[in-house]
Write a structure and sequence with these properties.
By secondary structure, this protein is an alpha/beta fold. The chain has 16 helices and 15 strands. The strands form five sheets. A six-stranded parallel sheet has the order 5-2-1-6-7-10, sandwiched between helices. Strands 11-12-13 form a three-stranded antiparallel sheet, covered by helices on one side.
């Protein structure tokens, strides 16, 4: 039996009140793991109605990755809040029919499969255009939709390796060092996906046309080496890990250990800040050494390091409060949530999850004066909003019950947990 939504031109759900600058925008989120889900979550925090669509036979892998908060994956909770969830059997025509009924009500579809996979699934852009001519598809991949690497698998470490970032991260002694965060996933995937969605929405506003946007994480992180590439073009000198001006080459711009084993970050690039720093440390002999390089920089770095080891980190920070120098603590993860600046900006939020209780996460980074962005509900359970969403697009309760029994939507009656 085939079930179709009543009324092919079902409209988007009415919001009871404005909630962020993207209120009344609907996004269908087919992405998994980290980059796409994080980008979709940022859009949801800004008010978009983001519907996370998962194949009930193969949900988002992140749901099952440790560590766990109670029974829930901490990683999944971190990148899927503010969304609603619908679970379908996308391998069956009835499941795909539901997807396209949702497309009729949507502005954007986000997907993160390898090139060609979504077309093989029968959910691709060309089919969606026949249902909704101005639909926008944002496709996030490692290497893009074309090129010799397009079909290859990859992860963050591979993309930053190709982009030249890994080669200049570390030192001569250590060789390349893996950064502590996933640069390509976040800057190249999540952030660029947000930019892609907003840009395509604006283009549709001006032209009335939808389009497909190809977001390649490798492409998207190349702007991170803009300066390094320009300097190489100008000087013809290959940047050496740990020796470039802003990655270890200058003693006035570096990380130093303190007496308690904690670290401090010194960023005195401008002359006035360096002068203030030398005065604070009572080292007038350093004043004309700000930009020394090579052995002179190594000697200065050794002297600064020896001085910082004479006091604890927080003592140095306290001493520098009124000195107007770019001297800050290197915070550990467990210290970040208590930082007064981060808290003043509302960047640590607490939400209540039905199974995990209170959970903390990172807040919405953009501050809008008239349409504030704000995280809403915690990350949804698999298929939590299936019935609610299907009713919105015109399915009757009878159809919903039958689709459950046939295993097209989640949870089927026979496997529902008590």
């Amino acid at each position: 039996m085939v079930y179709m939504a009543k009324g092919a031109m079902a409209t988007k759900t009415k919001r009871t009140a404005p909630c962020g600058p993207l209120n009344k925008i609907r996004i269908l989120d087919l992405t998994r793991l980290y980059p796409g889900p994080l980008g979709a979550m940022l859009l949801a925090d800004m008010g978009a109605d983001v519907i996370k669509i998962e194949d009930m036979k193969s949900p988002d892998y992140m749901r099952y990755y440790p560590p766990y908060l109670s029974s829930e994956s901490a990683g999944f909770l971190a990148v899927n809040r503010s969304k609603r969830s619908i679970a379908l059997d996308l391998g069956k025509k009835e499941g795909r029919d539901i997807f396209f009924s949702l497309v009729r009500t949507a502005d954007i579809v986000m997907e993160q499969f390898r090139p060609g996979i979504i077309d093989k699934m029968g959910l691709g852009y060309q089919k969606a255009r026949k249902v909704k001519k101005d639909i926008i598809y944002v496709s996030v991949t490692g290497y893009g939709q074309n090129g010799p690497y397009a079909a290859q698998a990859g992860h963050d470490i591979n993309y930053i390796g190709y982009a030249g970032i890994l080669a200049i991260t570390g030192s001569k002694e250590t060789g390349p060092v893996i950064p502590g965060v996933q640069i390509a996933d976040v800057a190249g995937g999540a952030y660029m996906a947000v930019i892609a969605c907003l840009s395509a929405l604006w283009a549709k506003e001006k032209t009335g046309k939808g389009q497909k946007v190809d977001v390649a994480m490798l492409d998207a992180i190349l702007p991170l080496i803009t300066l390094q590439m320009a300097h190489y073009q100008a000087a013809g000198i290959m940047p050496e890990a740990g020796r470039a001006a802003l990655s270890g080459g200058l003693a006035c711009y570096g990380v130093y250990q303190c007496a308690d084993g904690k670290y401090i970050a010194l960023g005195t690039l401008e002359e006035k800040f360096w002068k203030n720093f030398c005065n604070l440390m009572r080292r007038p002999q350093w004043l004309d050494k700000q930009f020394v390089i090579g052995d002179e920089a190594d000697n200065l770095r050794w002297e600064i390091a020896a001085l910082f080891r004479t006091k604890k980190r927080d003592e140095w920070i306290s001493n520098a409060q009124s000195a107007d120098v770019c001297l800050t603590p290197v915070l550990e993860i467990n210290e970040v949530e208590n930082d007064p600046q981060i808290n003043a900006r509302g960047m640590i939020v607490t939400q209540r999850h039905p199974r995990c209780g209170k959970i903390k996460g990172v807040g919405a980074p953009l501050k809008f004066s008239a349409t504030p962005a704000k995280p809403r509900q915690a990350a949804p359970a698999l298929g939590q909003h299936t019935e609610e969403i299907m009713k919105e697009i015109g399915y009757s309760q009878k159809d919903i019950n039958n689709l459950k029994k046939e295993g097209i939507i989640f949870p089927p009656e026979k496997t529902r947990k008590k």
